[in-house]
Structure formats: C-alpha cells, structure tokens
Specification:
alpha+beta, Calcium-transporting ATPase, cytoplasmic transduction domain A, Rossmann fold, 7-stranded mixed β-sheet, 6-stranded antiparallel β-sheet, 22 strands, 55% helix, HAD_sf, ATP hydrolysis activity, transmembrane, ATP binding, nucleotide-binding
Length: 626
C-alpha cells in the first residue's frame, strides 16, 4: 500500500512515458511493414496514454453539459487513426498526456507545503493530571485549559501559552524565520513548532481544530479551489470556443472540396489538422499552473493567499492603507527614555520603580519592569502597592509616599517643569510619559513608545518607489500619529479614526485609486479589511482580522507586502506571456493549415509543444527569488 502511495502522484507521468515507449516500438514495427502488431501496439499506446484525459473529458462533458478541450483531443486522435495516421494520432495522445502530467505535477507541487504542514501536527500529547502524573493522550481528547507537558525535541501539540519553565522554540514552520524564539511564562506557543531546549508545561488555549496550523491548512485548501477572474473567463471561453471549432470542423469536412477543389482525402486530412491545431489546450493551461505555483511560492515564504483573485488584485494595487498599532509598529510599548533627578541614586530608583510596576498588569507597567530587568536591576520586593484607578500607583518607601503615574496624579505643574520641560519634548515625539514622585518632588520620568518595526521604513519606501500611495489610518491621537508618520515616511496620515471612519476613508481611496489594499491586525481593522480591494492581515492579528483578510503575513514581516506585489506582478506577466504565445501559435497553425503548409505531425508537435511550454513557463513561479 505504501508503494502505491508513492507511485500514485506520478501515475499520469508513468502512463505518458509508457505510452511514448509503446509508440516507438510500434513505429519501428511499422517501418518493417509488420502492420497488425504495429496497429495493436498503437492502440495500446492510445489506451494507456489517453485513458486519464479521456475519462476526465467525458466525465466533465457529462457533468457540465459543455464540450471541452479533452473532447477535441479524443476526436482528433480518433480521426487521425481513421485516415491511417496512427503515428500522428498516438503522438498527439502522448504529448497531451505529458502536458496533463506536467499540470498535475504543478498542482501536486503547490500542495507540497500543505502536506508538510499536516504531517507536522502531532497526534498525541502528554497530559498533566492534577495528581502530577503525565499521560499520553490523543490530541482530540484535550480540552481548553488542560496542562500539557512538552519535552525538549518534541513538537508542541496544541496552541497555548507557557505555564511554567522556559525554552527556545523553532517557529520556522509558521513564520519562516530560522532563528529560535525564547519563550517564558505566558508567552504564546503554536502547534507544530519545535521545543528545542527546556522542558515546559503549557496551558492549552484553543481547541485543536482552531490552531494556527489548522487555519493555515484551511486557507491554502481554500486558495487552491478559488479561481481568479482570468481563469473563470478562460473556462467560460473554452466551452464556446470548442463549439465554434466543431462547427468549423464540420464545414471543413466538405466545403473546401467544392470551393477550392481539394480532394476528399485532402479535405478530411485538413479538417483533422484543424481539429488538432485549433484546440485551446495551451490557452487553457496559461493561468492555473502559474497561479497555483505562485500560491505555493507564497506559502513557502510565509504569505498565505486565499485565492488567485487576490494575487491578480495585488498586481494592480495603487494605494495601501496601514493601521498603526501592531502593523507599522510592534504593538507593544517600550521604554525609550528614563530620566532621573540629579543627585538621585540610579540603582535605587530603578529597583524601586521596577518593584512598584511589577505589581501591575498594565502594559506600560510591564514594559517599565522589563526595561529595568534588562538593565540589570532587580525589583524591590515586599512593597505594599495601591492601584489608583485611572491615575497610577502609590506606595511608601523609607518614610516617603511614592506616586507613579500621569502628570495630573503626581503634580501637573512640577511634571511639566521637570528637567527643562522634558515632557513637552517627549510628547511631541509621540511618546507617553509616566512620572515618579517622592517627598522631594519629581524623582524620575519614563517615556514609552510603541516602536516602529525595523522593516517598516524600507518597506514604505519600496512601495512608494513602485508608485503606490501609502497612508496611515489610526485611532491614536494626532501628536502620536504625526510622530509615527514622520518616522515611517508614509505619504499621509489620518488620526483618531474609529472603525467606521476607516471604512469611509477606504471608500474615498477606492473612488480615487480603484485598487486599494488595507493592512491591519485588530478587530477594529476588520471592517476596513473587508472593504478594501485586498485585505492584508498580520499573522499575529486577531482571529476576525485573519478571517476577513485576503492575504495573511505569517511572519508579521511588512517586507512580505513588497514581495507579494512583486510575486503578483511576475505572475501576471507570465500569464500574459502564456496567453499571447498560445493565441499566436493557434493563429499561425490555423493559417498554415488553410494554406496547406503544415502536416498533421507538425500540427501535433506545434500545438502540444506550445501547451508544454506555457506550463513550464508557469512553473517559473515556483522560484523563490522574485
């Protein structure tokens, strides 16, 4: 059974090669005037090489009640045999089978990443019971909230977060990034990634059916079944075109005999040649192989396209709107400045502030604590901290009341006057400033900012070089928005946008530019993602953003937008080359046939050769360098 599974994906190619070998044997016998065995072997070559295409063609004709290219090829091969051109008919079947095998290879290649992902999903996990015992159980038996033990070298079985322990995780299967990611308590973990160093206990946060891996698999499967507008047009065109060819073929069977004096044999021969050369095989194969190869290329590079239509749209994008937080920026505040009053003990101040902030769950407090620890200062313990909602924190230390919070909480006038009005300077840079006050006045000021991603500025510049208008839509205040806009280099920014405002601005952009992309990661971005011609979501974004978007950047790497546009443009170029080439070949062959300048063998080679060439040209989309 395992051997059959290995052979099965290549069965069409094996049948085509076997058909070719039989044709050579039959041709040799024909040259030696061994007629009957030659004909029998030709028939065998017909059956082996043409079975798959004939079965598909007849089945699709019955299902769709529409004639197709496969039907034309069967008719042409049978017709060639009737007039004694066994070799030509067999070669037609052979090359047609070979082009079909190539197309199947392209589709299998595009699904390779999907299969690899499915194999990466563990079937079982070590469930940690309340008694402390670990039991090996199937993934399907786990529930949200269960504790799971993961040993070094094992694949993480489900999505969750670190409960205890620390380790480094290879997330290349999801992000494409080869550098291991350090994981500590409460950090996110993804199914299918590899635990490299430490033993950890994780808590399951999502059902196994909703893991990041499962979403990727579903998205790629959906993309493969969704056809682009160009592909849909070609398929509609194919049915009408085949009918026209059959009508012209019917007229060719007798009209040339009466109009131009061809013999009956020549008339029938030319009708057979027309049937071969007028078939739109190459035209039909111009789009799908290239599209599937492009989707596969994207999957390997950490970009999930939900269908060929989105690649087509990306190739003509004229404007891109960006959300700020989590898209242009990292989405996490970081301490950029820590200013301490002259004469104060820096080590004591840092340890004190870290000790206070470590007792709060606020994102700013966590950022300040992390900063102090990274600087090598250990937070003071056993402080009695009181949370003052909407203002900040307070405690007592060495007989002084210590306040940590915004200017209005620590003394607005003193906060504004601190260090030569440093607050105004920092605020103009889009930073949030938190102050510390002791019994002597303002002790310290900490500036925090959601920092711009390293790749943001170069990505914006590259998009602008391509003539794409870049605009930032953010719910943040104007001062912060202005600072981020200046740092990233976007063409325009609009601040204080509610979700509905983003939609309205997207509609204005669509009216002006027609093809507009929106990039975001949050629930508030979902309506704008749905409104845009192409919605692009960051891989770490919310579930609703991922579901609404048309393209997903699994690496959270904005440079993948530039890559995706280059990939889309290359795909469109290859498709245009294929269509132009295939139409040109058909026209040349049809005209040559009317002028009796082409034989059936040349017609077969010219027509089927062009089909193979457009498929091979489409396979260039598998090249990672675009």
């Amino acid at each position: 059974m395992s051997m059959w599974n290995k052979v099965r994906p290549h069965i069409e190619l094996i049948a085509a090669v076997l058909s070719g070998i039989l044709i050579i044997i039959a041709y040799i016998l024909e040259l030696q005037d061994i007629a009957l065995p030659s004909v029998i072997i030709y028939l065998l070559a017909f059956a082996i090489g043409g079975y798959a295409k004939a079965k598909y063609g007849i089945k699709k004709t019955i299902e769709d009640k529409e004639l197709n290219v496969e039907f034309l090829m069967i008719l042409a091969a049978v017709g060639a045999s009737i007039i004694g051109y066994w070799t030509e008919g067999a070669i037609l079947i052979f090359i047609f089978a070979l082009s079909g095998a190539l197309e199947t290879y392209t589709m299998n290649k595009s699904r390779k990443e999907l299969s690899a992902l499915m194999e990466m999903q563990p079937d079982e996990a070590w469930l940690l019971k309340a008694s402390g015992e670990t039991v090996r159980v199937p993934i399907g038996e786990l529930n949200t909230g269960d504790l799971v033990a993961v040993r070094p070298g094992e694949r993480i079985p489900v999505d969750g977060e670190v409960h205890s322990g620390q380790t480094a995780v290879d997330e290349s299967a999801i992000s494409g990034e080869a550098i291991p990611v350090s994981k500590y308590q409460h950090d996110n973990l993804f199914a299918g990634t590899v635990n490299l160093s430490g033993s950890i206990t994780m808590v399951m946060t999502k059902p196994s059916s909703e893991t990041m891996f499962q979403k990727i698999i579903e998205l790629v499967q959906s993309a493969e079944s969704e056809k682009s507008p160009s592909q849909q047009f070609i398929e509609r065109f194919e049915g009408r075109y085949v009918k026209i060819v059959l009508v012209v073929f019917g007229l060719m069977l007798f009209l040339p005999h009466f109009l131009v004096g061809w013999s009956w044999n020549e008339t029938f021969y030319r009708a057979m040649v027309l049937l071969v050369v007028a078939s739109p095989c190459a035209l039909v194969a111009s789009i799908m192989p290239a599209t599937l190869a492009a989707i596969s290329n994207g999957a390997k590079s950490g970009v999930i396209f939900k269908g060929g239509v989105h690649l087509e749209n990306l190739s003509v994008i004229k404007a891109i709107a960006f959300d700020k937080t989590g898209t242009l920026t990292r989405g996490k505040p970081e301490v950029t400045d820590f200013i301490i009053r002259d004469g104060a003990d820096r080590e004591q101040v840092m340890a004190l502030v870290a000790g206070i902030e470590s007792q709060s769950n606020h994102p700013l407090a966590k950022a300040i604590t992390d900063f102090a620890i990274q600087q090598g200062f250990n937070p003071l313990r056993n402080l009695q901290v009181v949370d003052v909602p909407g203002n900040g924190l307070k405690t007592h230390f060495n007989g002084d009341e210590i306040l940590v919070g915004k200017p209005g909480f620590v003394g607005e006038q003193e906060a504004y006057a601190f260090e030569g009005r440093i607050l105004e300077h920092l605020a103009n840079q889009g930073k949030t400033v938190t102050f510390v006050r002791d019994g002597q006045g303002i002790l310290a000021a900490m500036a925090l900012k959601d920092t711009v991603r390293n790749i943001t500025k170069t990505t914006i510049a590259e998009l602008q070089d391509r003539g794409i208008y870049c605009i930032m839509l953010t719910g943040d205040n104007r001062k912060t928005a202005k600072a981020i806009a200046e740092e990233t280099g976007v063409d325009e920014y609009i601040a204080e946008c509610l979700p509905g405002d983003k939609v309205q601005h997207l509609k204005k952009l669509l009216a002006k530019y027609k093809y507009v992309a929106m990039t975001g990661d949050g629930i508030n971005d979902a309506p704008a993602l749905a409104t845009a011609t192409t919605g692009i979501a960051m891989g770490e974004g919310t579930d609703i953003a991922l579901e609404t978007a048309d393209v997903i950047l699994m690496k959270n790497d904005l440079s993948r937008i530039s890559y995706s546009i280059r990939l889309a443009k290359k795909m469109q170029l290859i498709i245009k080359q294929n269509i132009f080439f295939s139409v040109a070949v058909i026209l040349v062959l049809i005209l040559s046939n009317f002028f009796q300048a082409i034989s059936l063998p040349l017609g077969v080679v010219g027509h089927e050769g062009s089909t193979i060439l457009v498929i091979l040209n489409g396979l260039r989309m598998l090249n990672r360098h675009v």
